[in-house]
Amino acid sequence: MSQPLSDDANSSTPRDPAPSSTSTLKAIIHHSRLNNTNLNFSTSVEGPISITQLFIRRSRLSTTIEALPPSPPLLSQHGTGYDLTNSVFSPDGRNFQVEYAVKAVENGGTAIGIRCKDGVVLALEKLVTSKLLKPNANKRISTIDRNMGVVSSGLLPDARHFVSRSREEAASWRQMYKAPIPVSALADRMGQYTQAYTLFSSVRPFGVTSIIAGWDSEAEVGVDGQVGSGPSIGAGGKQDIKKKGGPYLYMIEPSGMYWAYYGAATGKGRQSAKSELEKLDLAAGELSLEQGIKEAARIIYVAHEDSKDKEFELEMCWVSSLAGPTKGRFEEVPKDLREEAEKLAKKAIEGDDDEDEEKMET
Amino acid sequence: MFRNNYDNDSVTFSPQGRIFQVEYAQEAVKQGSVVVGIVSKTHAVLAALKRNAEELSSYQKKIIPIDTHYGVALAGLASDARVLSNFMKQQSLASRLTYDRPIGLAEITNRIGDRAQSNTQSYGKRPYGVGLLIAGVDATGPHLFEFQPSGVTQEMLACGIGARSQMARTYLERNLDEFAGSSREDLVKHALRALKESLSQDKELTVDNTSVGVSGVSEEFVLYEGHELTGWLDATFENKEETTAEGGESMEVDS
Amino acid sequence: MDCHPEVWGRPRYEIYGDYDHSHLHTSGPMQHTQQPIVTGTSVIAVKFKDGVVIAADNLASYGSLARFTDVKRLRKFNSQSVIGFGGDVSDMQYLDRTLGSLDTNENYSNSDQPLHARNLHTYLSKVMYARRSKFDPLWNAILVAGLDGEDMPFLASVDLLGTKFSSPTLATGFGAHLAVPILRRTVPDEEAVQQTTKDQAVELVKESMKVLFYRDARSLDNYSIAVITKESGVELKENEKLENQSWAFADQIRGYGTQVN
């Protein structure tokens, strides 16, 4: 999927020499599909492609641009007046306010998610902005329901808004269906909610990109409030139903666009994090959760290399199968495991540095 | 002349992804007089410098006790702080009524944070123009939280906000290691010294312009004002004359 | 969809039209619950020096019909409380879900400050009182057993009116008449609580459950029992059988069981 994206970038704005190897993660796309329609607005855009999909291409595009040295094309668009209000299109079909919201995300600490074969891990580079902050407090990965959680990059208060709405959605799902919300349904609802904030001039888009991780139970879960197992014989007896369940990972962007991912990254160090994630061959589904937390820690350390002068804390949460270490619940990674992963991460980084030096010498 | 077009309301992002209205609201905090908060393993302390409009007027209230276990110190628009503190009082009472449990400090801080955030995402609303330090003790021990107009809330070991508060923060950073183990008295002294750092040269801390709030493990939040402060002020700044000559040095030796 | 964020995600006006209030204005007087339908009988509990024992049988009756025989009326709440429900089973399920969402909410903040039994009892009493004040009570009698904020044994009750009280021994329903006198023989007051061991308390409760089964026609010899202590948290057994039953005493009693005269 990464190829069409960069092609679009080239064709629609010939001024940016977007690299063809734009590192965009392979996404498992069920819910929305980017077709290969060229972003040529003089011809009519094909049927079902939605406005937000166009936005997202553009915001992806600006991501690409930002990675390149000077970026005059984007800046030159300012001041024409179309970027002053949310929900207003510019003549070439962009919603600038959404793109600016993406900028807020790009300055946040790196957040990543890895979907392993037996669970999902979320990790966050939490930059320490002051010595006076209480160490290991101010947790930023939040639980949504027992089996899922979310990490965000961008404006902290917006992230909390996102989290509390997610919790409301999860609670209202339970109210209605007496069962936990599937991760896909939560991503869908939050995608819609986020998108609504791009539609009106009375609000602004969310200044966060959020990664949702969860485990849909593979076992049959009782109905909430169930007090017995029902008749053991005769009518009303139970049938064995195959339930799917498993690990899920989604990322929702300020436009409301979301995809399912094998590995997702956002925030300042997303570029290097993404290229590290791609090396893991997550689509093969071989990586174990235990290995996953080590990789997650390492990737956060790698992504931090660019802002090495700032201190940071690593925050990690995970969710596993019922048989796994978290018993289907979304929890913080235990301290000893996290510290071990951090130790390995530091070692890996130092190893890389040594290699670099050796290369320099030779 | 350059005019910033992106700063008229809180629903407009600048091209860099900033929300200027919120940043301007943060400036309002810097207009308020300085307040300082510190926690130890057993206590949480707030100290504030009060201002009066003129010689004969009363001093502006800076520390508001909310529930028996905690209070807040404010810097910025006092009327906004009243709105928030009334909300906090209400929520605290609701917790006691419904669960027979003093509300957790992290919980109440989150609630005002969420309230402040909603003011930054809708047209026709403005961000709160006040910063708060929330200090007290709950079931998990002493805590200090900082609240900003943007809705950002952070748990701190020590913090100072308001006019010239950078000096106070510098003092706090320098003495950070001592706070955890400090006694109640030492913690108050540290807070007063940090406060003093932020004062302009010609000003002194007096019983009139200083407020101190203290709460501890199995000790209710108490606000100290006026002559109740004499002892602490005398004990903290006993070598007042020397300090002018030698700077901050002599003050730190005894801590 | 409109420009008010607070209505986003709610049923859409364009599709569903105005909210239909008609069901609120039916002709004739409005009637709320007048009686419980599917019911559970007694819950009994007793404090001992390190904790609390609580028990209830596994029967849900539909009138005099023993309709459901595997209904678990002791519900565990986090690791230090058990709530026993007597009365309407559907209202119990409603309360159980309410407590479930309360627990979820509590776990959002990973602070180590869980709701203890006293908090839970206060909360339930407010819920029950609020509902009775709407003249629409939740038809239950509830015992809350667990540990309070100081990790001391806690036992208290609340009923459909929101009435709440505490005692070293408590029972709801028939148990209040039949079991409490037996429990009080051993544990008359807080002083006696200190003299009672876990084994004694469990034995006492089991004996009382047996008496209840002998005397209460809406009871079952299959029951749940939970012990809550600081050391081991909640030990909940949900499928116990009354042992050593002896119906010899019934031999000469007229009108007992199937024997009518």
UniProtKB/TrEMBL annotation, chain A:
One of its GO terms (molecular function) is hydrolase activity. Residues 341-350 have a biased composition (Basic and acidic residues). Residues 82-104 form the Proteasome alpha-type subunits domain. Keywords: Hydrolase, Proteasome. Signal peptide: none annotated. One of its GO terms (cellular component) is proteasome core complex, alpha-subunit complex. Residues 1-22, 341-362 are annotated as: Disordered. InterPro entries: Ntn_hydrolases_N (IPR029055), Proteasome_alpha (IPR050115), Proteasome_alpha-type (IPR023332), Proteasome_asu_N (IPR000426), Proteasome_sua/b (IPR001353). SUPFAM superfamilies: N-terminal nucleophile aminohydrolases (Ntn hydrolases). GO terms for biological process: ubiquitin-dependent protein catabolic process. It comes from the Eukaryota. Residues 351-362 have a biased composition (Acidic residues). PANTHER family: PROTEASOME SUBUNIT ALPHA/BETA (PTHR11599). Belongs to the peptidase T1A family. This is N-terminal nucleophile aminohydrolase. It comes from Pseudovirgaria hyperparasitica.
TrEMBL record, chain B:
The keyword Cytoplasm applies. It is found in: Cytoplasm; Nucleus. Residues 6-28 form the Proteasome alpha-type subunits domain. It comes from the Eukaryota. GO terms for cellular component: cytoplasm; nucleus; proteasome core complex, alpha-subunit complex. InterPro entries: Ntn_hydrolases_N (IPR029055), Proteasome_alpha (IPR050115), Proteasome_alpha-type (IPR023332), Proteasome_alpha1 (IPR035144), Proteasome_asu_N (IPR000426), Proteasome_sua/b (IPR001353). GO terms for biological process: ubiquitin-dependent protein catabolic process. Keywords: Cytoplasm, Nucleus, Proteasome. Coiled coil: none annotated. Pfam families: Proteasome, Proteasome_A_N. The keyword Hydrolase does not apply. Its main location: cytoplasm. Gene3D superfamilies: Glutamine Phosphoribosylpyrophosphate, subunit 1, domain 1. SUPFAM superfamilies: N-terminal nucleophile aminohydrolases (Ntn hydrolases). CDD domains: proteasome_alpha_type_1. PANTHER family: PROTEASOME SUBUNIT ALPHA/BETA (PTHR11599). Belongs to the peptidase T1A family. This is Proteasome subunit alpha type. It comes from Pseudovirgaria hyperparasitica. The lineage of its organism: Eukaryota, Fungi, Dikarya, Ascomycota, Pezizomycotina.
From TrEMBL, chain C:
InterPro entries: Ntn_hydrolases_N, Proteasome_beta4, Proteasome_bsu_CS, Proteasome_sua/b, Proteasome_suB-type. GO terms for biological process: proteolysis involved in protein catabolic process. CDD domains: proteasome_beta_type_4. The keyword Cytoplasm applies. It is found in: Cytoplasm; Nucleus. Its main location: cytoplasm. The keyword Cytoplasm applies. Non-catalytic component of the proteasome. This is Proteasome subunit beta. It comes from Pseudovirgaria hyperparasitica.
